[in-house]
Each structure stands twice: as C-alpha cells, then as structure tokens.
C-alpha cells in the first residue's frame, strides 16, 4: 500500500523533473562535501606528525572551500526541493477541489462537509510539510550513509563490521515504531475531520444555536471532541518521543563499542592515529543521517496515511457520467417529457416510482404534496443532479443521458428555497451564471428582480460585499438577488422552490412580482407552498409517496376531493389566511 501511495505522489512530482534534478544534484554535492571531510582530517593528522606547518594553510583553504560548497549546495537543495514540492501540492489540491466540484449530489450527501475540508486542507498540509522537509533529505541521508559506510570499510573493515551489526537492529526499531505511528495517525486524522465537521456544522447554524441558547452545549461538544483528539495525539507523541532516543541509543552503543575496540587497536599498534581520527570523524558524521532517517521515516508514515485519505476521495468516480460524444443541445423551447421514471438514493428505498409527465413549452406546473412526497427529488433530475434508476427524461426530444451536462444546465435556472449567495460583491453574485455580463445587463436584471432600490441604498452599491451566505442581507433581499441571477442567465426552464412564508408582507410582495417576471414565457416547475401560486399555475401535479396521484386545475382537483383537497384544507388555506392577517 505504501509503495503504491508513494508512486501516486511521484506522479505529481514528475512534471517538475528539471527542478527535481537540480535538487538531487545539489544533494549529491552536499553529501560529497561531507564525505571529503574525514580524508581532510586524516591528511591533517599525517602532516601534524611531520610538523608540516605549510599544510595548515592548505587545510584551512580546503576546509573553507568545502564549507562554501556545502552552503551553496544546501541552498540549492532547499530552493529546488521547495519549488518541486509546492508545485506538486498545488496541483494535488487543485485536483481534489476540481474533483469535489464534479462529484454528484449523492456523493456530497454521503460525506460530511467538515470531513472533505479536513482531507483537502489538513491532510494535504501534512503531505506538504513532509515533502518540504524530507523529500530530498532522504537522498542526502542515503548518500551520506553509503559514502560514510564505504569510508569506514576503507579505514578499518573490522570496526565497520561492528557498526554494520547495529544497523539491522536500528532498522527493525524504525519499522516497529513507524507502523504504530502510521496506525495512530489514521485515528488522529479521523478525529481532526470530526472537529472540522463540528466547527462547520455549528458555525453554519449559528443562528439556530443562539436562538435556542445552546452555546454552552455546543462548547461542551467541541471540548469533548477536542479532548479525544488530544488524547489520541498524545499516544502518537509518546511513540515519537521514544523512537528517536531508542535509535540514538542503539547508534551510540555501536559507536561506544567501536571506540573501545579502536582504542585497543591503537594500543596494540595495529591502527595508526591518522586512521583513528578519520574513523572517529566518520562516526560523528554518520549520526546525522541515521537519526535524520529515523525521524523522516516516522513522518513519512504520517504522510502515507494522509495521502491515502486524499486519494480515497480522488478515487471516487463521478456518478453522473456523460456518454462518449455527448450532444450539445442548442437553444431549447422548454418541452419536458418524463416516461416511467423511477429513482432511489439507496438500493431498495424507492423515492420516485413510475413518474410520467409531459410539460409543454412555457407551461407553468405547480408541484404539491406532503413532506417527503418526492417533489424536490423530481426537480433535481431535470438538470441531472441525479440520474434516474429507470425511465426516460427528455427536453425538446433530447434524452438527458446523451446530452452535454454544461449545455443542459446553461438553459435551466434554479431558485432554491434556501438561497445560496457567496461572500463576494452584489454584482459578482448576480453575474454568477454569466460572468461576461455587461453593466447594463446586470442593472436590468437587478431592476427586473426588484433588487435595484435596496442595492443602491448600500454605500457601495453593486460593489457591496454581502458576507458569507449573504448574511448582510434580509431574506427577501437574498431571494431578489437569486431571482436577478436567474433573470440575467435567461434560461428557458425555471425550477423554483417557493420560500416566502418567513418574509414580511412588503418583502413578500416584491419577491412575488420578481418571480412573476422571471417565469413569464418560460417553462416553469414550482414546488408550491402558497395557494396564489397553485391557482395561477397552468396545471397542478399532486405527488404522494413518490408517485403522481392527481393532475389538473385548482377547481377540478377541489371537486375531486382527493389528496389536493385535503392539502388545501390543512396547508394552503390556513397559510393563506395567516398571510392575509399579517398583511
């Protein structure tokens, strides 16, 4: 698994191979500058015995040259490594963000938003930190270890074998600790995702939290999650805290035995002083790659866990898949045909069953029914947010499964019950569906949606930033901007979910007029909550338990005394009377 993950990470690094070669070249030079030092000290010892004072100047110049070479090579290694890793991480983050936006609604319904944010931000940050600090350093540690090991064998093979005997023990210790760090890291990252989800959920619902005075409750929930994360993180910290000392003690134990044996060799006259000095220098330098490799190994285990979490998202296939060579539909008239349409979110749990409906261009259809009847699901199939499990949906004769999704959605306008606006300017929000719109077009759309008056009351006018989710605007103002956005888009089909019951009478009147202008001459499907809407519809479609149970005009359905009649008595009539009293 780790090997496969490593190769996948390398795919993001591969495009920047020139900079990668630069980093590796500088790493080789940095390693060589270290490997030459033991020989430099060995020569110094020889010339000291000969009392060659002239060599001291040569030694100093050679030492300074090696230091300068190491300075330049380490700078190049760090710079090129940072460039490669930052570019790779940027590409990875762009890739997962693009993938998330292309995923279907069913995917986003299954995954928590906080979980996705955690994997896109926190997990990628871990990968980034490991790559930045350990990618080219691993090569440096390997080259230093190999070079210094060869040097030890050249100086004294017996002493080198003693050091070699310690190496497998050190390797086993690193592997043992690394597996535990990897297992705990997966738990830690899951806890981080839980915290991200909790924060996202609470902040997005801050109005509800405050309305019910649940601040202390939510603080308690967060503290518990945070404490669980702390305890799990400390498990990993304990493993990391013991790993490096264990590796260092094992390495020092080998050094201690070498010094002891080397001292005996010198006393016996089987090893001269210059070789002993060189060997001790090698031992001092070999500690850095051994300990560094141990530290890097544990951090790479964390990176592999985070990489697997990121790639798990990237491996999810887009559920709404276009056929090869999709048809780009031209400007449509707006005829919609549904024939035997069934749909389920989960296998065995049918939401829509055998829906058949023909809608003429420009016809206004009011969808009504009790909660959970399938109204919202039915409208979600038209822009292909989901694909039906069976049956046919066609627009102007084009089977939606064979059309280009972008060309389809460009001709559909949606005004949801819960309007979503972005933390940008009013102008940017209106022009969201037509980014190349002129100032005159934006102005006209705002005016048609009854939004111009309140927009101009802001000191910044159209350049006013409206806050996250349009929090600086009232509910009616958000609705008007949503209508303006669709008017500017100028689609042939409108999907509208009414949401006027929570507004004051003045705001409601402005929105109703804006809605009337929006749907004029366009094929419109309204999920209706108001009697005035269903009365003015060309046709009322009554749904219950995922099926169409009645269709007709208001008077016809009232005379039939079916489900619509019951809905009128329990839902539409009381709501209308309440609005009249409020007015």
Automatic annotation (TrEMBL):
The chain crosses the membrane at residues 20-41, 135-153, 159-177, 245-263. Residues 21-302 form the ABC transmembrane type-1 domain. Pfam families: ABC_membrane, ABC_tran. It comes from the Bacteria. Residues 336-570 form the ABC transporter domain. It is found in: Cell membrane. Its main location: membrane. Gene3D superfamilies: ABC transporter type 1, transmembrane domain (1.20.1560.10), P-loop containing nucleotide triphosphate hydrolases (3.40.50.300). It is a multi-pass membrane protein. One of its GO terms (cellular component) is plasma membrane. GO terms for molecular function: ABC-type oligopeptide transporter activity; ATP binding; ATP hydrolysis activity. Keywords: ATP-binding, Membrane, Nucleotide-binding, Transmembrane, Transmembrane helix. This is ABC transporter ATP-binding protein. It comes from Candidatus Desantisbacteria bacterium CG_4_10_14_0_8_um_filter_48_22. The lineage of its organism: Bacteria, Candidatus Desantisiibacteriota.
């Amino acid at each position: 698994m780790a090997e496969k993950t490593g190769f996948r990470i390398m795919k993001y690094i591969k495009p920047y191979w020139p900079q990668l070669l630069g980093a590796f070249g500088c790493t080789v030079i940095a390693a060589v500058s270290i490997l030459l030092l033991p020989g430099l000290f060995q020569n110094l010892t020889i010339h000291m015995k000969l009392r060659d004072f002239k060599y001291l100047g040569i030694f100093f110049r050679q030492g300074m040259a090696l230091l300068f070479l190491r300075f330049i090579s380490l700078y190049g290694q760090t710079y090129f490594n940072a460039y490669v890793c930052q570019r790779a991480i940027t590409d990875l983050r762009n890739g997962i963000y693009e993938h998330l936006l292309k995923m279907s609604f069913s995917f986003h319904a299954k995954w928590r938003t906080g979980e996705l944010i955690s994997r896109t931000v926190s997990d990628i940050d871990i990968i980034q930190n490991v790559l930045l600090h350990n990618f080219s350093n691993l090569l440096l540690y390997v080259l230093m270890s190999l070079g210094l090991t060869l040097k030890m064998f050249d100086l004294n093979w017996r002493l080198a074998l003693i050091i070699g005997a310690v190496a497998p023990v050190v390797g086993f210790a690193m592997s043992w600790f690394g597996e535990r760090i990897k297992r705990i890291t997966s738990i830690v990252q899951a806890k981080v995702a839980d915290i991200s989800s909790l924060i996202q959920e609470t902040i997005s619902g801050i109005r509800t939290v405050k309305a019910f005075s649940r601040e202390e409750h939510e603080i308690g929930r967060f503290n518990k999650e945070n404490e669980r994360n702390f305890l799990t993180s400390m498990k990993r910290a304990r493993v990391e805290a013991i790993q490096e000392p264990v590796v260092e003690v094992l390495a020092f134990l080998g050094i201690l035995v070498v010094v002891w044996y080397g001292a005996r060799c010198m006393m016996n006259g089987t090893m001269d002083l210059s070789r002993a000095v060189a060997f001790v220098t090698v031992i001092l330098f070999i500690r850095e790659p051994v300990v560094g490799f141990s530290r890097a190994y544990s951090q790479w285990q964390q990176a592999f866990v985070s990489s697997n979490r990121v790639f798990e998202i990237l491996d999810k296939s887009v559920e709404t898949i276009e056929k090869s060579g999709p048809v780009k539909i031209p400007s449509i008239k707006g005829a919609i045909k549904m024939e035997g349409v069934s749909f389920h979110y989960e296998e065995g749990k049918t939401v829509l069953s055998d829906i058949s409906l023909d809608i003429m261009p420009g016809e206004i259809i009011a969808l009504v029914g009790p909660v959970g009847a399938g109204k919202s699901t039915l409208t979600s199939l038209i822009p292909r947010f989901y694909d039906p499990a069976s049956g046919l949906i066609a627009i102007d004769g084009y089977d939606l499964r064979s059309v280009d999704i972008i060309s389809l959605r460009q001709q559909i306008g949606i005004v949801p019950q819960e309007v979503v606006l972005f933390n940008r300017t009013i102008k940017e929000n209106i022009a969201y569906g037509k980014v190349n719109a002129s100032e005159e077009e934006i102005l006209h759309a705002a005016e048609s949606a009854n939004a111009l008056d309140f927009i101009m009351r802001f000191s910044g006018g159209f350049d006013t930033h409206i806050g996250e989710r349009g929090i600086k605007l009232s509910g009616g103002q958000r609705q008007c901007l949503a209508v303006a956005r669709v008017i500017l888009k100028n689609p042939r089909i409108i999907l509208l979910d009414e949401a006027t019951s929570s507004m004051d009478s003045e705001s409601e009147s402005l929105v109703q007029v804006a809605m009337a202008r929006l749907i004029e001459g366009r094929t419109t499907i309204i999920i209706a909550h108001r009697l005035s809407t269903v009365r003015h519809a060309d046709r009322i479609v009554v749904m219950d338990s995922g099926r169409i149970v009645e269709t007709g005009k208001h008077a016809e359905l009232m005379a039939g005394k079916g489900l619509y009649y019951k809905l009128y008595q329990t839902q539409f009539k009381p709501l209308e009377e309440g609005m009249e009293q409020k007015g």
